């Protein structure tokens, strides 16, 4: 699956979940939105303009920019609201993840349904913490700085954060078997 | 393989880069204005929405950017930099960020100028929009106002990062490869926010501690003037950019009746030499105005005043007063307050005006008239009296009592809610006029030079007039002793007068009809 993937991890307090998620998702969508296509005759089209809007967060000392589109905002708020409710009612240790996937539709002939091929996946892992007072909050903030840059999980050394990934490229064989295997794998991975 | 860029592509690329640079500056400066930006998406594009993004163009910023670029484009070794700095009301300044638009030699020959490069530049602008809200200077700029302002400066050439202090951090906004090089946009921002005041002290201290939002020249060889990142964003000011203010003295009074946001530009009004200043014993009256909601108007503490008491704010120039009144009347509850003269110990008023009026109600417009003493005044201030000041309204003053204490302009009546201070004071003039028992201060004789008159050509027509009518006798009806008597008489004679008038009603009616 040739899909770009980014994983972000955040530790937030319960009341900050919604705003944190909205901030990240809106920022990503700002980059992944164009103006409306306006089809003119002779097969040409023009692209509309994307407006932007500053949003101040109430529970986080932060401001982000989002696309000026109420519909998009509503859709995102709805999804994030559901995530927040699920997180709250899960009763677990307050861990969860929300992902934003950009996909492309590929029309297939009957009987196969349309394929959704993702080309980018953003995953935000959320860890809800409960901080009793400001002091704890400050400690939490300071500690996380280091964690953003270094991998503090090792006992003896502290390398920079790194990620190793590999990929097996498809050989020339496009036999039915390999294609089917790939299809099933992709479907399951989704 | 070297694929040369076609001339059309080259032209397009140059145009894209030029407008990208201009839009970059707009985004950065607008992000530091201190207010939330909001633009609308539109499905039908206009010709001016470059990169399919609705970014407003502030004319002054475009002008400055074009001036800095001077027809050139960012190239290797020639970067366009936007410097964001903070300046406090005391004059200390500190560089906060430097945004650099650089070009390096790494070319991407395969890329299509239209529209891959165009789209990627658009994406880079979006990243810039997001990242300008993330750096520490954003929060500082949102809180700018009375204590400090955020200024910007655009320059072209070598990047100068030395002013950012130790340990500054860099964030890369993004890169876009083009056939002529790779465009990189990055920001270096300060971490250490302690002031480095030794280097950055201004040449002249600010006047009376107010914020100077005029252009400042930086002592750099390749310097360009700093500009404030705020401007009065009124509805009618859409296309107006802040004018250059060369000195405080030519600012005009402007009262903003709309609640001042962080962008409020309360301006200093200066009325020099409105009064007789013959031997320069007197300084200039200074008019201060604050916005409606200002927690405190910009208070003027006179330097060199003695005993902690501001000198008498006698009636300043008539013009100022009228000006004051004009703008005061639309507002409710104008509180006309002034310091009492030096002789009295009215600490309340004094402390009110000499300290910052933090306790003043938010819905009052406070105006303080305080006299500033000239540099070479020999006499101490508290010896000056109203008579010496030769103010235009001196004629209202009663002949005998020459103290500012009784000047109605100085010591307003006790009704603080007077709509028109001028009116209120006129009415009360009589009552205070004959109150005796005020000690005279020493007189200082100065040559009288009335306002707006030229005394070298014609020998003082206006001056002669003033002198002749300066101390007219008091109206008899307004003096208390006689007044009381005549009042009683009037009351007694009223019924008779009424009867007479009633008899002549028909005549009066006829007269009125002739008027109509």
Automatic annotation (TrEMBL), chain A:
One GO term describing the cellular component: Atg1/ULK1 kinase complex
Keywords: Autophagy
Name this protein carries in UniProt: Autophagy-related protein 101
Keyword Transmembrane helix: no
Subcellular location: Preautophagosomal structure
GO molecular function: protein kinase binding
Predominant place of localization: other
Family statement: Belongs to the ATG101 family.
Any GO BP: autophagosome assembly
UniProtKB/TrEMBL annotation, chain B:
Record region (Disordered): 303-358, 404-438
Protein location: Cytoplasm, Cytosol; Preautophagosomal structure
Residue ranges with Polar residues bias: 339-355
Domain of life: Eukaryota
An individual GO BP term: mitophagy
Keyword Calcium: no
The Autophagy-related protein 13 N-terminal domain, residue ranges: 89-195
Keyword Signal in record: no
Pfam families documented for this protein: ATG13
A cellular component annotation (GO) from this entry: cytosol
Biased composition (Low complexity): 424-437
PANTHER family linked: AUTOPHAGY-RELATED PROTEIN 13, PTHR13430
Family classification: Belongs to the ATG13 family. Metazoan subfamily.
Protein name, per record: Autophagy-related protein 13
């Amino acid at each position: 699956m040739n899909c770009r993937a980014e994983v972000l991890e955040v530790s937030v307090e319960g009341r900050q979940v919604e705003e944190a998620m909205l901030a990240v998702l809106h920022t990503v969508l700002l980059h992944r939105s164009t103006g409306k296509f306006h089809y003119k005759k002779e097969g040409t089209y023009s692209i509309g303009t994307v407006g932007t809007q500053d949003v101040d967060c109430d529970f986080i000392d932060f401001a982000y920019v989002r696309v000026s589109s109420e519909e998009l905002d509503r859709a995102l708020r709805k999804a994030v609201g559901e995530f927040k409710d699920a997180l709250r009612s899960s009763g677990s240790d307050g861990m969860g993840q929300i992902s934003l996937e950009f996909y492309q539709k590929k029309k297939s002939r009957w009987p196969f349904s349309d394929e959704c091929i993702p080309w980018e996946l953003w995953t935000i892992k959320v860890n809800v913490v409960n901080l009793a007072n400001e002091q704890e909050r400050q400690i939490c903030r300071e500690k996380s700085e280091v964690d953003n840059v270094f991998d503090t999980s090792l006992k003896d050394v502290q390398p920079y954060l790194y990620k190793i990934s590999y990929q097996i490229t498809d050989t020339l064989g496009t036999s039915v078997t390999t294609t089917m295997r790939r299809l099933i794998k992709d479907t399951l991975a989704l | 393989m070297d694929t040369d860029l076609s001339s059309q592509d080259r032209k397009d690329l140059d145009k894209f880069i030029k407008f990208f640079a201009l839009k970059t500056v707009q985004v950065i400066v607008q992000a530091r204005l201190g207010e939330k930006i909001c633009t609308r998406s539109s499905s039908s594009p206009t010709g001016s929405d470059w990169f399919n993004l609705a970014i407003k163009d502030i004319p002054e910023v475009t002008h400055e950017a074009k001036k800095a670029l001077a027809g050139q484009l960012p190239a290797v070794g020639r970067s366009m930099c936007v410097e964001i700095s903070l300046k406090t009301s005391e004059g200390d300044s500190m560089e906060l960020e430097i945004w650099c638009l650089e070009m390096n030699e790494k070319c991407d020959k395969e890329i299509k100028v239209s529209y891959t490069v165009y789209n990627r530049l658009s994406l880079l602008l979006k990243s810039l929009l997001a990242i300008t809200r993330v750096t520490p200077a954003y929060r500082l700029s949102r809180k700018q106002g009375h204590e400090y302002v955020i200024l910007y400066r655009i320059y072209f050439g070598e990047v100068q990062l030395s002013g950012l202090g130790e340990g500054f951090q860099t964030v890369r906004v993004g890169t876009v490869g083009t056939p002529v090089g790779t465009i990189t946009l990055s920001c270096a921002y300060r971490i250490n926010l302690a002031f480095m005041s030794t280097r950055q002290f201004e040449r002249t201290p600010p006047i009376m501690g107010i914020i100077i939002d005029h252009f400042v020249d930086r002592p750099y060889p390749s310097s360009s003037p700093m500009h404030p990142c705020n401007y009065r964003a009124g509805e009618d000011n859409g296309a107006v950019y802040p004018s250059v203010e060369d000195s405080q003295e030519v600012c005009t009074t402007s009262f903003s009746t709309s609640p001042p946001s962080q962008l409020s530009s309360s301006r200093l009004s200066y009325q020099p030499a409105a009064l007789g200043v013959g031997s320069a014993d007197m300084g200039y009256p200074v008019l201060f105005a604050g916005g409606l909601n200002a927690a405190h108007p910009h208070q003027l503490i006179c330097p060199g005043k003695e005993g902690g008491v501001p000198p008498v704010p006698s009636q300043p120039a008539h013009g100022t007063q009228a000006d004051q009144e004009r703008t005061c009347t639309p507002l409710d509850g104008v509180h006309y307050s002034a310091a009492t003269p030096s002789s009295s110990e009215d600490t309340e008023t004094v402390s009110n005006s000499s300290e910052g009026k933090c306790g003043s109600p938010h819905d009052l417009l406070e105006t303080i008239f305080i006299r500033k003493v000239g540099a070479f005044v020999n006499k101490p201030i508290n010896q000056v009296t109203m008579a010496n000041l030769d103010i235009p309204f001196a004629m209202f003053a009663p002949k005998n009592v020459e103290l500012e204490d009784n000047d109605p302009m100085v010591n307003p009546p006790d009704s603080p809610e007077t709509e028109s201070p001028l009116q209120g004071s006129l009415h009360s003039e009589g009552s205070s006029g004959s109150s005796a028992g005020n000690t005279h201060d020493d007189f200082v004789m100065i040559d009288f030079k009335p306002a707006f008159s030229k005394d070298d050509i014609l020998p003082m027509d206006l001056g002669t007039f003033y002198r002749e009518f300066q101390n007219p006798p008091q109206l008899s009806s307004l003096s208390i002793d006689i007044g009381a008597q005549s009042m009683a008489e009037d009351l007694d004679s009223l019924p008779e007068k009424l009867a007479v008038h009633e008899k002549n009603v028909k005549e009066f009616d006829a007269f009125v009809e002739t008027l109509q």
